[in-house]
Amino acid sequence: MKKFALLFTLVLIFTAVFTVAAEDFPREESLTTNGQQWGAPANFNPYALSNIAWPVADTRRIPIYESLYMYNMLTNENEPLLADGPIVWEDDYNIIVKIKPVAHWSDGEPLTADDVVFTFNSLDPDVIGYQTQWSDVWSYLEKVEKVDDLTVRFTIPAEPYNVHMLPSYLADTRIFPKHIWEPLFEGELKETTAKQEYFNENPIGSGPFKLKFYDETRIVLERDDNYWGQDPSMFGKLTEVKYFIHPIFESNEAGNLAFAQGEIDVSQQFIPSIWDIQKQLVDENGKSLVTTYYPEAPYQLGYSMPSLVINMTKPGLDDFTVRKAIALSLDFEAIGTNAMSGYTQPIEISLFNNYLFKDYLDYDDEEMLNLMWDTTDLDGNRATANAMLDEAGYKDIDGDGMREMPDGSKIEWKAMAPAGWSDWNMSLEILSESAKAIGLNIITDFPEWSVVQPRMYSGDFDIVMWSPFPNPSVANPWRWAWTPLYSKGVPEFGQSAYRNFNRYHNDRVDELLDQAAVSKDKDEQIQIYTEINKIWLSELPTIPLMYRPSSFQTTYEGVWTGFAKNGDGSNIPPLDCTDQAAIKDLYNLKPVKK
Fold it and tell me: Where among 153, 172, 189 does a domain terminate?
């Protein structure tokens, strides 16, 4: 209790310091956020290898450096940003992109095809000399060339030929000004190390904000009043937000406390029991000032699917009967309620997120439907699991209530997740209790992230909890299936793999994913993904536990109002006003007081 009181006191002191320090940026003109920066800014350099500060970090954030397109996960489509209209397929290998004539950099220079060509070429590992956070595009790009001042041609390689990935990267890749970076690369940043270590303290971007101030307590962006996006061809106006501020908190608890005190407008943090804060922060009429995308459970839009990744080379776990029994035993309601504070819709046992990609599956396919089951019938599912295990020879031989292997050996599998990831840790505790209910011994293992990461990459685990699914992009659902299931190019156990951690291999799945990679026909894709889903259901190399938000967006509307909500007609995804098409949220915000 004393430790908690001390922590609370320190948090209050830290919050008070922030409040005083923020007074030079009027609160009524400032939009505040948290959950994306956890230490003093190390650099604002998009070419750095690590520690890139908000808002340059992450390929989806576009307040300073913009992309040609912005992905909208509500529609699974790219919307034009710097691009002047949709991509045009010139033929099977070439994509044409036009650039908006009004687009320009924050220093007033025009943004042209030269900037786009320079950007993509500068990210080529063979050119820059190392792999940046943006460089994966060159796995699916053969060349990029200027057609005219406002037109660029992108060429897809014949091997691997893929019609989904390059359009995805056109929304993920920020465009950088050639007139700034080329002289640097030819001069003081000529050496590789210099490129990686450059701070970039004055980013020249094309976005709605410029870097105003930073220190160890906060990062402040200031609205660019000359932003090109106020043109009628884009947003048609400037955002009313003058300052976009990210205070730097030392912990989730400190950030959550600041939100509960009305000092944070957009929280991208896991906040347990949001309904309690909703009751605390109310206006003079008793109406809550705390809002979420959905007004009631699940509150947030669940995009990702944290799952159990199962090492199918381990004795017992190599048996589909055991894997399905584990899946049948799971108390999904407890996971959703206790681990996720209700921030998840009821789970459907499917490789694909039912709430996002249901129209890519054939729900008239009886074989697929027969392989699925109702996750809410816990007693019935556990009865089925017990019967399956009995028939397969997993019996309680010594009478201790726990089953042994058919050869009589003891069962003990470890389920691993990083220490301190509270919702994931609790999910695995629920897994352990669920497994005990059918006589299987699964114990939890919570080492530090620095231990989990190399073990997961090398395949050194029994069960690891991870979200094997990629960031939102138009490459989904292809990439959704490719990431956990495609075996080609995945190194063997003991070497680091950055996808397919359990080294799942099925020749037919590889073949189907190769077919889906080149398919532009929706009906054909439905057939392919339905077959992949049936194979997955027949093998269960992964088991989904929840639908988790790609980003949390919990909002305080005591200073700003108008944040995107489900059913409001805005079609804006809830991604903290910075990610992809969520940037449009900024143009609906109105100050509560003027």
Answer: 189
